[in-house]
Each structure stands twice: as C-alpha cells, then as structure tokens.
C-alpha cells in the first residue's frame, strides 16, 4: 500500500511538472513558434523527400517490373550510361572483343534465328522500336507529333505489361503477312473516340499518313520518367521495319520470360550460348550483346535514389542542428528570466530533480510539437508528388517514427544543459536576482 501511494504521489508530481512546462511554453508563443517552425521545416524536408522517394519506388516497380523477376531482355548495347552492362557483360574475363563486332545492331535474321534455336521452356517476343514523333490522324483531327510507334509480335503486349481493354492481340498472320493493323494506346483512343473503347475497333487511322486498321485498344498504363505508355501505337515489327525504320541504328530486342524465377539463370546461360553463334562470335571474343534481367533497371534506379535519401538526411540534420542550438539558447534565456521563480520554488522545498524535469519537459515538448507539424506537412508535400505520379497514398511509417524519435533526442540534448543550470541555482542568490 505504501509503494502504491508513493507511485501515485510521484505520478502526480510528474503530471504537475508537465502541466507547468506546458503553461510556460504556451505563455511564450512567439519564441516557441519560431523554434517549432525551424524543427518542423527540418522534419518536413526529411519526411517529405522520403515520402516522394517511396512514391517513385512504387511507380518504378509498377512500370518496369511488368515482366517480373523471371524475365530478361537481350539487346545490343547499354541503354543507360550508369548501367555497367547486362548481367553477362558484368563478368570480367580475358576475352578480346573486336572493334568491328562492337555496337552491331541485332538484325531481323539474327533475332528470328535465335527464336527458332532457343529451346528453353520460355515465352519469347521480338520487338523493334519505331519513331517517337509520329502523327496520328483521323479525318480532320490530328495528334501532336509525339506518339511512339512500337513493333512487336503476338507476345509483345503481354511481356511488356500492357493489357488489352478491348479487341484482339497481334497474331502470327498479322506478322507474316505484314498487313497494316495496329493496337492503339489509351490516350490515342480517347483523343479520337472518347471514353468508349469499342468505337475504335475496325476503324482506319493514319500513322504518319499511312493507313492502319485498329484491332485493339490498350488499358491505361500511365507514364514513367516522362515516357507516356498510353500515347503509343503497337504494330508488327515487320510493319515498323518497313515503314518506320531508323536506318542502320535499327536493332531488334528479344524479351524472354520463364515460368519460374528459379529458371532464370539457366535460361540466361542457354540464351548466351545460343546467341553467340548467331552473332558469329569466335570462342576468343567477348559478347557483343547485353542480357539484362527485367528488374535490373528498377534496381539501378532505386540504388541511385539512395543519394537523394542521403541529401534529405543532410538537409534535415543541418536544420535540426540549427534548431537544437536555437532551442538551447531559448531555454537558457528562459532560465535567466525565471531565476527568481526558480529560487522561490527551491526555497519552499522544491527539489533539483523537479526543476530539472520541468525544463527538460519544456524542451522536449517544443521539439515534439515541431515534429508533429513537420511529419504532417512532410506527408502532405510528399503525397503531392505521389498524386503527380498517379500512385497510391504513401505513409512512410519508418521515417515518421524516426523523425519523432530524432526530435525527442534533439529536445532532450538541447534542454539538458539549461535544466542542469536551473537546478543548480542557489535559492538565496536566485531570490536576490534582479
């Protein structure tokens, strides 16, 4: 019973101390507001940037991992400068590469020969990029010259993460006959036919003034890194090769998807073994083509996003350091202003611990108020970017918890010296302070 009463007494004293601390900071609104604003800005930068990064990660994963981790692409050169090459080109070897064999595009014959020789249980698709500035017209209506024309086969739509809203896919007859049929993207269909996906079917549109019959309409896929996947026209790679070829730089890409991710390494090994003779490489020559897993680009992007995360940490750290210095100065000024009050409290029996707790509570409370505002503003700012990318609402729980914990630590450290100074004041000298 005595222990229970003692704990109640201590709890009441803590509540009283906390209440007194709250009344003190609410009575100095200007100084408290400025410090809260500085802390809130630092946490807002930290949480906001990382919320935006989480939204970008979500968008990248959705857009570039359509094939999943069980797919890979064969192409003839690096797509991006920050890529050190495909999964095979990253292996260091003593093989020599002839300059005449480097940067040689993959021809139609090579791509089709690989498809015929590759016996691994997998789904293949041959593709060929056309132009990026096509004009689509129907009657008197035209699009801007920014429509991408893509060439593929019967598996292209599936392996590239597109979904048919209506109509049919390309088939082998479309491919072999080279007839002018196409599948149009969501934005192209909406511009000419409105929101009814059935209207475009069997209509004749003109792609760079060439007539194509619409056989299908794609569902909306959105855009990533400024590339709109809804503003496209997909036709057979033979049609692209015939009408939209970009000359000697035109190169086929080969997409491969296996049933199980455990089979991916075996499929890559066999693909390399099959494609080397197709590319007429000697035993002593290195590969002159790249093999990239479907999630390679996503992983590279996510790796580069770590630099932005580090920048956010630096910005938040510098801001919080400044806020900690400002908070400590405010608490020291508060100790000076309330010297007589502290002396009176100690004169009537107040203990050093109570005085120290009061100033620590004030400091931590100011920091937590700043953290609360900063977290809310950070989530709002970060999700404005998420709204722009058309991703779901992102709540970075880890960064929110880390930000609150960091602010608590800042408040504790900033209030430590002022609270010790206040607790050590001599009550007699404090009462005489003017």
Structure description:
- The protein is α+β, with helices and mostly antiparallel strands.
- The chain contains 13 helices and 14 strands.
- The chain has helices at residues 2-27, 29-64, 108-117, 156-159, 172-177, 186-193, 237-243, 264-278, 296-337, 339-347, 352-389, 397-423, 427-431; strands at 71-75, 122-129, 136-138, 141-142, 148-152, 164-167, 181-184, 204-207, 210-218, 223-224, 227-228, 232-236, 253-258, 290-293.
- Strands 1, 2, 3, 4, 5, 6, 7, 8, 9, 12, 13 and 14 form a 12-stranded mixed sheet that branches.
- A hairpin with a 2-residue loop joins strand 3 and strand 4 (141-142).
- The longest helix has 42 residues, at 296-337.
- The chain is elongated and about 105 Å long.
- Mean pLDDT is 79; it is low at 1-12, 81-86 and 89-94.
Number of strands: 14
> For the report, how would you describe the main beta sheet?
12 strands, mixed
Approximate strand percentage:
5-15%
For the terminal residues, how far apart are their CA atoms?
46 Å
Fraction of residues in helix: 40-55%
Average pLDDT: 79
The SS-based structural class is alpha+beta
Backbone CA Rg: 33 Å
- Principal-axes geometry comes out as elongated
Contiguous uncertain segments of 5+ residues: 1-12, 81-86, 89-94
Order of helices and strands: HHEHEEEEHEHEHEEEEEHEHEHHHHH
The tally of helices reads 13
Summary tags:
twelve-stranded mixed sheet; 54% helix; 13 helices; two-stranded antiparallel sheet; single chain; disordered N terminus; 434 residues; alpha+beta
Short summary:
This protein is of the alpha+beta class.
Task: Record the SSE blueprint.
Layout: H1 2-27, H2 29-64, E1 71-75, H3 108-117, E2 122-129, E3 136-138, E4 141-142, E5 148-152, H4 156-159, E6 164-167, H5 172-177, E7 181-184, H6 186-193, E8 204-207, E9 210-218, E10 223-224, E11 227-228, E12 232-236, H7 237-243, E13 253-258, H8 264-278, E14 290-293, H9 296-337, H10 339-347, H11 352-389, H12 397-423, H13 427-431
Parallel strand pairs: 5-12, 7-9
Antiparallel strand pairs: 1-13, 1-14, 2-5, 2-13, 3-4, 3-8, 6-9, 7-12, 8-9, 10-11
């Amino acid at each position: 019973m005595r222990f229970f009463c003692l704990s109640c007494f201590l709890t009441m004293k803590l509540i009283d101390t906390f209440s007194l601390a709250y009344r003190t900071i609410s009575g100095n609104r200007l100084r408290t507001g400025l410090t809260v604003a500085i802390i809130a800005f630092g946490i807002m930068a930290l949480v906001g940037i990382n919320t935006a990064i989480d939204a970008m990660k979500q968008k990248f994963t959705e857009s570039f991992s359509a094939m999943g981790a069980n797919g890979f692409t064969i192409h003839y050169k690096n797509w991006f400068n920050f890529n050190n090459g495909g999964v095979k080109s990253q292996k260091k070897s003593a093989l020599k590469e002839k300059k005449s064999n480097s940067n040689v595009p993959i021809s139609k014959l090579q791509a089709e020969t690989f498809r015929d020789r590759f016996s691994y249980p997998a789904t293949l698709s041959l593709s060929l990029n056309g132009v990026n500035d096509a004009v689509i017209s129907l009657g008197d209506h035209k699009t801007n010259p920014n429509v991408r024309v893509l060439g593929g086969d019967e598996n292209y739509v599936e392996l590239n993460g597109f979904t048919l809203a209506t109509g049919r896919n390309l088939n082998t007859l479309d491919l072999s006959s080279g007839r002018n049929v196409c599948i149009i993207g969501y934005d192209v269909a909406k511009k000419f036919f409105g929101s009814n996906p059935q209207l475009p079917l069997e209509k004749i549109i003109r792609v760079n003034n060439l007539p194509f019959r619409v056989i299908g309409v794609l569902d909306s896929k959105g855009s990533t890194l400024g590339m709109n996947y809804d503003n496209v026209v997909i036709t057979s790679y033979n049609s692209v090769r015939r009408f939209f070829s970009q000359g000697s730089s035109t190169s086929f890409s080969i997409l491969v998807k296996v049933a199980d991710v455990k089979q991916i390494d075996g499929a890559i090994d066999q693909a390399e073994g099959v494609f080397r003779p197709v590319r007429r490489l000697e035993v002593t020559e290195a590969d002159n083509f790249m093999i990239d897993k479907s999630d390679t680009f996503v992983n590279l992007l996510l790796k580069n996003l770590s630099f932005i995360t580090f920048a956010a940490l630096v910005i938040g750290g510098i801001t919080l350091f400044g806020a900690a210095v400002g908070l400590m100065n405010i608490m020291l000024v508060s100790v000076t202003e309330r010297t007589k009050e502290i002396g009176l409290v100690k004169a009537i029996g107040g203990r050093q611990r109570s005085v120290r707790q009061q100033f620590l509570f004030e400091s931590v409370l100011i920091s937590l108020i700043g953290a609360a505002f900063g977290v809310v503003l950070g989530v709002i700012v970060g999700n404005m970017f998420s709204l722009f990318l058309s991703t779901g609402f992102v709540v970075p729980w880890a960064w929110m918890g880390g930000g609150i914990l960091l602010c608590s630590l800042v408040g504790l450290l900033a209030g430590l010296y002022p609270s010790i100074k206040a607790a050590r004041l001599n009550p007699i000298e404090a009462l005489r302070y003017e």
